[in-house]
Amino acid sequence: MASPRLLAALLVPLAAGCATRDLSESWILDRLRVLAVRPEPAEPRPGDTLALSALVVGPGQDLQAVLWLACQDDALGVQGCELDPKVLASLEGLETATPEEIAALYASLVEAGLIGVEPWIPPTYTVPPDILDGLDPAARLEGLNLWIQVTAIPEDASSDADLELAFKRVPVSEAQTPNHNPNISGLQVDGIEVPPGAVLELDRGQPYSFVPVLEKGSVESYRYLNQDGVWEDRTEEPWFLWYVEEGDLTTPWSLWPHPVQEWTPPATPSFDHQTLWVVVADRRGGMGWWTQPVHIR
Amino acid sequence: MLALCLLLGLLVPCAALAEGTDAPTPALDEPLPILQEPVLLDFVQAPYPPEALAMGMEGTVHLAIEVDADGAVVSVEVIAPAGHGFDEAALEAARSFRFSPALDASGPVPVIVEFAYGFVLDSASRPGARPEAQEVPEADAPVNLEIRLREMGTRRPLAGFQVEGEGFTGLTDDEGWARFQGVPPGTWTLRAARGGFDPVERSVEILANQVTTLDLWVRNPSYRDDEIVGVYQRRQEEVTRRTLTVEQVRRVPGTFGDPIRVIQSLPGAARSPFSTGMLVIRGANPEDSAVYVDGVRIPFIYHLDGMLSVVNADLVESVDYLPGGYGVRYGRSMGGVVDVRTQHTFPEDHVAHWTTDILHSGGLVEGRAGPGDRWGYAIGARRSYIDVFIPLFTKGSGYVVQPRWYDYQVKVERLELAHGRFSFFLFGFRDRIDVSTPDDVAQGPDRDAQGDLGAIYGTHRLAVSWQRDLSDDWALEIVPSLGVDLADGSVSGSMDGRETQWLLELRAEAPWTPSDHLTVRPGLDFIGGRYDFEVGLPFDPSMMGDYDPLGEREPYALSDSGWVWGPGVFLEADVRPLADPDRLRLTPGLRMDDVRITGGFHDLAWEPRLGLGFRPVPRTLLKASAGLYHQPPLPMEMYRPDGEVDLVHERAVSATVGVEQEVGQAFRVEVEGFHKTLDDLIVFAREMTSMDDPYFFNAGVGRVYGAEVMLRRDPVGPLYGWLSYTLSRSERRDWPSEDWYPFEFDQTHILVAVGGWRLPRDFELSTRIQYVTGNPTTPYAGGVYDVDQAYYWSYSTAPRNSERLPDYFAVDLKVEKLLTFRTWQLALYVDLLNVVRGVNPEFVIYNYDYTESAYVRGLPFIPNPGFSAKVHF
Q: Less Cβ crowding at N or C end of chain A, within 10 Å?
């Protein structure tokens, strides 16, 4: 019966206001989170080497490590890239392993897709040169995705439930106009641009409007060969995600060309020095972010 | 002394409920509505009980009189005694009554009539009366006093009233007139009385050589009797059919006055979330149950908001609810059947109905028209306006939800045909829901999910019904109908779709009843039509198999059309082999459906079914049924861009066994066990690599079993109600390699108590109490963040539907007051939903990363005030 199903779908947002308890909001950063992953370059060609970075935030939590994996579709599971079970089994005796055994284990992990362990091994990945082999010329322009798995491990992790898992696609192609990461160069607060490195002074309980300032060229125009074989000129339409530690946001996201956001700092903040984060994504795989320290008066 | 033994026969047609006589069984299997009410032909006056006379008492005895198909009284029972000798006197007199037979489309049928036998003292016998010397009217003089008695609120002429002055008396005739000759000039006090009505006294001035005409309006202190107390046709026994008369159920709290919604309070029907009225009958999917209006199948029975059905309540005559084990007349469904029948009796004057509550307003006008008033008509329309109120509760939420709907009904029927009935029925509805959002407020990061959402759904049907008696033992009924279902929806302008489906249906039955021991019913049930749909998407759906949020999107248009062709034939026999045809009844039947749908579906379904009813003693019925049921795929399950589907009918093997026991005249108990095995259930493909792969397979199986108990007090006297309990289990397994899991609406215990109490001065209080096991739910253990979509994908470490929501408990109340004026009536009511104000979780919601959860509360306390008016003109 279609109508009750449709009704149920429509009721979900309505019903959220009728919940028996308040649930945490995605834009309040009160736990360890992976907010963004940025490959450089954003759209590599076969054989290129990627440098990867992530915006991992955990207010009040110490980070033990960030584990990076890379894989292609054939190793993709429900939670992103999956390690070979044999490799996982070999980790059981890690405490008593000899240096040679640890070296061999690390080699097997690299073979299985490990590309970095921060803060010790910065994540890098060289795209297989033959990754696009077998695709026709038009498909090579469109490319295919690599998968990057990020696992943030807090200092006090005691079970898998304490880990924060995230995955990201990285398009690999021979596009004529390959994508570049967008960059946020600053913020405008109530129409005034905040100087780089400045700490924002905001009044508690007062609403402020924020507009992210993108570096020139962040909103790219590019060419795309559509399914009819016709080249189209397109322009990116990035979206922005906003995160704070306390206070109220009107919505968790804003869209180009209306990137404005309103944040009301808490009337009674738990601590005076807080942070606001903005993440930008260009919908083609490119990402960037801005971290803004705030002093709430 | 003159004892005035007055009467009130309440002859409202209701449907099949009663049983327990040795009279011949109605010829038709289906309990047909009463076409002609029984009329009391011979009234026997009871002597006024000496004890009551000595005490100067008056009284009314309520009797249940069982009348056979010849109009003879079979038995009489007191259901509301008056004592003081009234009961014995009324019983003795009523045993000698004689009625005209009640008639349905099959001919005379046995019925039970509730009868109020009133004892009213005349003025001379009244305590404190004193004889007065008055001039007596002259018997040979012309008529000079005419009095007409009519009932307030209905303008109904009141026959059989005793009208008396000082020294003269008379009875009103069928038109309500009492005429007197030669009443001497002067001021006279007139008194009119009849059992069951408030007596009226009025002074009248008689002038010499003039005729005085007087209208007297008499108030019926209990108008509800006319509606609730009724005539119950004998129950037909082959299946579990719970027939509801409209007035029985319109006052059940929580139904918004909609008789169809009361199904939710009957055994076998699961509770639907937020009282949306979703039909989940005996553990079947909502789409597995079939809905008919006057034999015409429609896709939905409720409007989009789920609160009201699509048929105007004032037009509904009865609702048949068949949870399972039904005969071969119904096909192409594996779940239950709801068969709504609209009225086919029309008032002699014109009557307008109007209803207004917080959800909707609507009206209906009915009556007779044309030469000789030989055409009955009913025209109705309703419109909801909840779209006006919802925005008040969603301020600041970033969206505005506005559901609204209308429906209409036009019915015209030729009356007084010698050998049958002929009618046209045009009806339909259109539902629309809009969800609008401000342009500068993002609705998630996906650019194609921005903007407004709109959906429209409409159904329209034109049906012609023709019934004719071909001979004394052979009848024919043909119901052709033409209709269209329309759907149109859009999301943000980048996704839209529309579908049009024209349907031609033809139902024909020719029951042949050569004797009291056999009825053979051949029938045709055809459905055919054409469908067209168009879908516009912002991306190629071939991406869905391997969705890439970073992929370049290109607008995609999809359209298709096809035909549905489904002739079905059935043959059913009703065999009553014993000398007493009521004792044993066998109903074997065979149905064949040949369904073809463009896209590669062609399947022939054979459905043998058998019903059994055995009555070891007159008030006990043992019953059982077994049969096969099939259901073709839904249109969406037929879709495949390239290639054809490889599907067959879904199938159910059903068996039931039960017993019904009458207890007194007013109580009955029903117990029934059921078991259903489902196979070839259509399930979605687990692994798809491209759009060319089939989407759906007949890989699922299911099992449903349980028992239902219903204790019902028929609406005789001031109390009515029922207690319904269902114990059941419904499970599914989608693929052979997977585990069984509880069905989404599996509710182990469903207990519903409904009760009503008709109070003096036309007040009525009713209540509904529900206790239901919580629905199954699948717990989530956490989520993995998809950075490119800014979305957490949930994962579960527990089996599907392995947990349950807390149990549901709700109490609803309704209070109604009926006001009666000369030519109209006004019912004021307030429906109080969930007065206990329990939490009653309907489902679980999670936070963004599935690490926290909360329950979504059910409906809060909702007071729904409203009124309904009924005007005679």
A: C
Q: Domain B3-218, what fold?
A: Immunoglobulin-like (2.60.40)
Q: Which carries the bigger pLDDT value, residue B103 or residue B312?
A: B312
A-chain residues near B855 (CB < 8 A)? 19-20
The CATH 2.170.130.10 portion of chain B extends over: 239-341
Could you tell me where in chain B the CATH 2.60.40.1120 domains are found? Answer: 3-218
Per-residue pLDDT at B690: 65
Q: Are strands B853-857 and B862-872 parallel, antiparallel or unpaired?
A: unpaired
Residues 6+ apart with CB under 8 A from B639: B560, B599, B695
Pairing of strands B290-293, B40-42: unpaired
Integer Cα distance of B108 and A26 in angstroms = 71
> CB under 8 Å to B370, separation ≥6 — which residues?
none
pLDDT single digits (tens) A31-62: 899 999 999 999 999 999 999 999 999 877 78
Structure tokens that stand for B157 in this block = 């002429």
Question: What domains are defined for chain A?
Answer: 25-175 (2.60.40.1930), 177-297 (2.60.40.10)
Give strand pairing partners of A211.
A188
Banded model confidence at residue B463, pLDDT cuts 50, 70, 90:
very high
Which of B390, B432, B550, B837 best probes binding to A when mutated, by most A CB atoms within 10 angstroms? Answer: B550
pLDDT mean over B176-193: 83
Supply the mean pLDDT for chain B.
Answer: 81
What is the per-residue pLDDT for B319? 82
Q: State the Cα–Cα distance between residues B167 and A204, nearest whole angstrom.
A: 95
d(CA A198, CA B47): 107
SS3 content of chain B, % helix, strand, coil (to 5): 10, 55, 40
- The DSSP bridge partners found for residue B450 are none
The partner residue sitting opposite A227, judged by closest CB among B304, B455, B554, is B554
Cβ of B855 within 8 Å of Cβ of A20? The answer is: yes
Chain A environment of B392 (Cβ under 8 Å): none
- Name the minimum distance, in Å, from the CA of B118 to any CA of chain A: 51
Top-confidence residue, B357 or A12: B357
Fold that domain B239-341 belongs to in CATH: Ferric Hydroxamate Uptake Protein; Chain A, domain 1 (2.170.130)
CB atoms within 10 A of CB B146: 14
Q: How confident is the model at residue A3 (pLDDT cuts 50, 70, 90)?
A: very low
What is the per-residue pLDDT for B90?
A: 85
CB B657 within 8 A of CB B632: no
pLDDT value of residue B224:
45
Residues of B in contact with A248 (CB under 8 A): none
CB B559 within 8 A of CB B535: yes
Confidence of residue A208 (pLDDT cuts 50, 70, 90): very high
Q: Which of A5, A12, A18 to mutate to test the interface with B (most CBs of B within 10 A)?
A: A18
Higher pLDDT, B19 or A245: A245
Q: What is the largest CA-CA distance in chain A?
A: 65
Q: CA B371, B376, B381, B382 torsion: positive or negative? A: positive
The answer as to CATH 1.10.1060.10 being correct for domain B342-872 is no
Distance, in Å, from the CA atom of B824 to the CA atom of B148, rounded to the nearest integer, reads: 18
Q: Are A174 and A182 in contact (CB under 8 A)?
A: no
**Beta-carbon separation of A226 and B552 below 8 A:** yes
Sequence-separated (6 or more) residues with CB below 8 Å from residue B558: B534, B535, B536, B537, B541, B641
For residues B284 and B704, the answer to whether their CB atoms sit within 8 Å is: yes
Q: What is the pLDDT of residue A17?
A: 52
Confidence of residue B678 (pLDDT cuts 50, 70, 90): very high
